[in-house]
Amino acid sequence: MENINTNTKNVFKIKNLNLSYGSKSALQNISMDIPKNQITALIGPSGCGKSTLLRTLNRMNDLIDNCKIKGDIRYEDNDIFEKDYDVIGLRTNVGMVFQKPNPFPMSIFDNIAYGPRCQGIKNKKTLQEIVEKSLKNAALYDEVKDRLRDSAKELSGGQQQRLCIARAIAMEPDVILMDEPTSALDPIATAKIEDLILELKEKYTIVIVTHNMQQAARISDNTAFLLMGDLIEYDKTDIIFSQPSKEKTEEYITGRFG
Amino acid sequence: MTYRTQFDTELDNLKLNLIKMSDLVIKNIHDALYSFLDLNTELAEKIIKEDKKVNDFEIAIEKECMRIILREQPVARDLRLITSVLKMITDLERIGDHAVDISKLTIFMEKTASTFKVEQTRLMIETSEEMIRLALDSFVNKDIDTARKCIDKDDIVDDYFDEIKEIVAEALKDHTIEVDYAIYLMMLAKYLERIGDNAVNLAQWVIFSITGEHK
Question: Taking Cα atoms as reference points, which of A253, A226, A254, A159 lies closest to residue A14?
């Protein structure tokens, strides 16, 4: 089950992953591979562990005190839990976009330039190029090109979320993790983000957590269904939504889950 | 526990309407075949009129499927069920059309009534009817084995068709059959052979709705 793309390179290889917060187990024995340049959706009811799994991929759970992890995650064949592993480097390569757009309280330009500046890029022209390219790739440039010095907080919700995607892209990551990126947006902004995600997969690998099953069906190549910390089923999205092999998956996606 | 009672009721109604449509089609085809064998033109004319009801069923079920797709956005077994129903009503409607075609033969044939009897015609009628019934039973009971039985019977119908063809050819050579009647008999046999194919399609869509596999 864990490897559903035999011909594709896998960016992440997750093996027997167990995670608990204190004494409470959040993920049990998860094994799955994340294929390169594809969109992988994580679905399941609230509290099933999908966001926890997503955050484990760039070690965001390190920030939680009582979080214990057992098992193995390999990013580009390197064990990300190894003692001297470069976590900053991992988070540079594996960017993240959250549920609520969270632009920094600064200008549009500075939001995008923030990461590259932290990496030591000072050259104005280089920064300008990065900002323009990132905004173009996030399909936002035309809408904001004349007001790059305005505060990012003045943008609409959908524009703010695309700005956050542009900010992630500015770091030139390999993977973008998205935690319910459209749940706070209206249908038009959602459609724009979905189009953008589909364009982005040419360059990036995308892992997306979503509560919207139609969204998973529309945009993802692979879908994993989690329930109470277990990976119930992981397969091609077309198969999951047309002929899932597990009864629990069938019950959940057809809305007969109780 | 189920959380979509309204949706489940809609799906149950959809299935019920498909069964009602099937019952009507089976009745029409049965009557049409015996109108041919018994040269009953009155019955034939009634069947031609009844076909409107079959067409109305098709349109109503089609609309209901579209509405459910739009409002409920079905996936997995629900999506397969609705896809199957949409395909099955097309085959049922075609079987209904064949009932009309056969009834029209009965009306044309009246003038060339013949005493020439081919036992295989009756056997072919019975087998085709049984195939439709098996396909519907498999739909109602979600039973793949019954659907496969239906599909297997198509070979029998095809064999009867070949036998009738040979008997009619022989009779034409021997001048024991009127040429017009021979043509009508062959057309009837061809319609029955087509009905067998339609029944196979029905069974294949039932299998798809259960397993997701379609040949």
Answer: A226
Whether CATH 1.10.630.10 fits B3-211: no
Residues B76, A255: C-beta atoms closer than 8 Å? no
Nearest-CA distance B7 → chain A (Å):
10
Spatial CB neighbours of A218, under 8 Å, sequence gap ≥ 6: A194
Report chain B residues whose CB lies below 8 A from the CB of A255.
3-4, 7
pTM as predicted: 0.84
Residue A145, domain CATH: 3.40.50.300
A94 touching chain B per CB within 8 A = no
Report pLDDT digits (tens) over A54-111: 999 999 988 888 999 999 999 999 999 998 999 999 999 999 999 999 999 999 999 9
CB pairs under 8 A between A and B: 38
The 8 Å CB, 24+ separation contacts for A78-85 are none
**Per-residue pLDDT reduced to its tens digit, B75-96:** 999 999 999 999 999 999 999 9
In a domain, A4, yes or no: no
Structural domain boundaries, residue A232: 10-253
A55 in a structural domain: yes
Domain ranges of chain B: 3-211
Indicate if the alpha-carbon torsion angle B148, B152, B153, B157 is positive or negative.
Answer: positive
Question: What is the domain count for chain A?
Answer: 1
- Chain B 61-120, residues with CB within 8 Å of chain A CB atoms: 73-80
Residue A227 within any structural domain of the chain:
yes
